[in-house]
Write a structure and sequence with these properties.
The protein has 228 residues and is α/β, with parallel strands linked by helices. The protein contains seven helices and ten strands. The two termini are 20 Å apart.
Amino acid sequence: MTVVKAQNVTKDYGLNGQTVHALRGVNLEFSGGEFAAIAGPSGSGKSTFLHLVGCLDTLTGGSMLVGGSDTGKMTRKALALLRRHSIGFIFQAYNLIPVLSVEENISFPLTLLGIDKKEIRERTAKVLSDVGLEGMEKRRPKEMSGGQQQRVAIARALVKKPALILADEPTANLDSTIGKEILELMVALNKSEGTTFIFSTHDHMVMDYARRIVRIRDGQIESDEVKS
């Protein structure tokens, strides 16, 4: 099943009176259950592509299908619902809500979906166990290490049971030991839950774990390698 299909995708930005061509006719497909990395130097267009897949930005040209829905033809409300139901995000800065506990940060997306309290408790408890954070439910983000905060971010992304998780430089703020633990956790969850993971990264360790590496440079696909 195709989860993401980009056809001739372009994205332009205006900068100091000039046009920056961030993406130049990108064609890519990702299937369910993939564990893929989009790699490239800073400014290559990899984060821009991820933001377009995640409906955080709008296309200049081409089409982007996410879960079969053409995002360029959807209203803002429909895009928000697609993000809320079908896509999980993991950012390098964690993006946790500082005034909420671990438990509250994780369960917050389920509250937005209107899920009943009993199921919220059950799902939250499961993902806390999955990411190894049992006993830390009442802690605030500032009381946790970077690796622990990233685990909370992963749990928050997973709790919705999305078909797709987008991870934008998820190891950038972690040392190599913690980064490896986080990647091994995501590999295990990918295998057990069948969730599609797409990373943007320039971290060679992420590329080592990825089963597919798409290299992008100057807004164009340079190579697309599936590991044997």
